[in-house]
Write a structure and sequence with these properties.
By secondary structure, the protein is an alpha/beta fold. The protein has a single domain, classed as 3-Layer(aba) Sandwich (Rossmann fold). The protein is built from 13 helices and five strands. α8 packs parallel to α13, α9 packs antiparallel against α11 and α9 packs across α13. The relative contact order is 0.14. Belongs to the sulfotransferase 3 family. This is Heparin sulfate O-sulfotransferase.
Length: 340
């Protein structure tokens, strides 16, 4: 009798778990559907009350966007969306390939690149992407400036992902042998033994990517580099999203730059681009390892930039994707135009 009671109790718990999981999946599906519907409503409401001049449309065709993508921040997934949309939306996507995967260009190449990007009319409108540090076009004397966008990721997550990527590769090119192939040491073991591959100094990448080409940007732990990175993020980037909120990043870009990203949100939701490149055999670090890494100055500074970027992104997307307190989406339009 007791066994029957236990079996009945276990069966009831299983049914409850299944029901809860079902409703959780349905809630997630409905939230995504609601997000798509709300975005379309905001977009249609905005489009119906705004006016676009012929000159503005022409300027859109002169658009150049540079995505100086930080490694292991979900950049392949995002670029995959751009490549899928480029033919439909009539723009070019170009990968910037720098010798030996260098992140900093020589001074002569900085100038040539800036002149080329801004004057190559046949390639406009365009999205350029590559693993390169921010480049200040004002300093290089160009008559026009491209628009910069980027993604940033929690620094320890990015380091752990890169650590295992070098050993096991990813599902994007699973047969490509990486330079640490065969090394089975876990990240926890690496930290415990004090190996160079998991040195906190290796996290010093997102700060210099936003800081730029100055020598000081690449000195691990430089306070000046961190402040310059924050300055550039706010003053020279149109949008900087976070990897953990990729969908919102894409939706903000669609609302801000529809010339390139029209339809990007729906495409991302309905395609397999959300996890295009995942590191294989990644093991999450232990709490002991996390605590040790977070004691380092480099982690604190990189995390400072991440938190700064996250707060700024939340502010930006609130004005675009989320409704105000009066439930009315923000638009701008022109009226009282004189003379008639």
């Amino acid at each position: 009798m007791l066994n029957i009671h236990k079996l009945w109790l276990f069966s009831s718990l299983c049914v409850i778990v299944i029901v809860v999981l079902y409703f959780q999946s349905e809630i997630t599906r409905l939230e995504e559907a609601y997000r798509k519907l709300e975005y379309k409503l905001v977009q249609s409401h905005s489009d119906s009350r705004q006016f676009t001049s012929k000159d503005a449309l022409k300027d859109d065709d002169d658009l150049v966007v540079i995505y100086n993508r930080v490694p292991k921040t979900g950049s392949t997934s995002f670029v995959g969306v751009a490549y899928d949309l480029c033919k439909k939306n009539h723009f070019k996507v170009l990968h910037i390939n720098i010798t030996a995967n260098m992140h900093v260009m020589s001074l002569s190449n900085q100038y040539k690149f800036a002149q080329n990007v801004t004057k190559w009319q046949e390639m406009k409108p365009a999205l350029y992407h590559g693993h390169m540090a921010f480049l200040n076009f004002e300093r290089l004397g160009t008559s026009s400036k491209p628009i910069f966008i980027n993604l940033i990721r929690k620094p320890l997550d990015r380091l752990v992902s890169y650590y295992y990527f070098l050993r096991h590769g990813d599902n994007f090119r699973p047969h490509l042998v990486r330079k640490k192939h065969g090394d089975k040491m876990t990240f926890d073991e690496c930290v415990e033994k004090g190996q160079p591959d998991c040195d906190p100094n290796n996290m010093w990448l997102q700060v210099p990517f936003f800081c730029g080409h100055a020598a000081e940007c690449w000195k691990p732990g430089s306070p000046w580099a961190l402040q310059q990175a924050k300055h550039n993020l706010v003053n020279h980037y149109l949008v900087v999203g976070v990897t953990e909120e990729m969908l919102d990043f894409i939706s903000v870009l669609e609302a801000s730059l529809p010339r390139l990203f029209k339809g990007a949100t729906e495409h991302y939701l309905n395609s397999n681009k959300s996890h295009l490149r995942q590191t294989s055999s990644k093991i999450d670090p232990s709490q002991r390892t996390i605590d040790k890494i977070q004691q380092s100055t480099i982690w604190k500074m990189e995390n400072d930039l991440y938190e700064f970027a996250l707060e700024h992104f939340k502010f930006v997307k609130k004005k675009i994707l989320l409704r105000e307190t009066n439930s009315v989406p923000q638009v701008f339009f022109y009226e009282k135009i004189r003379p008639k």
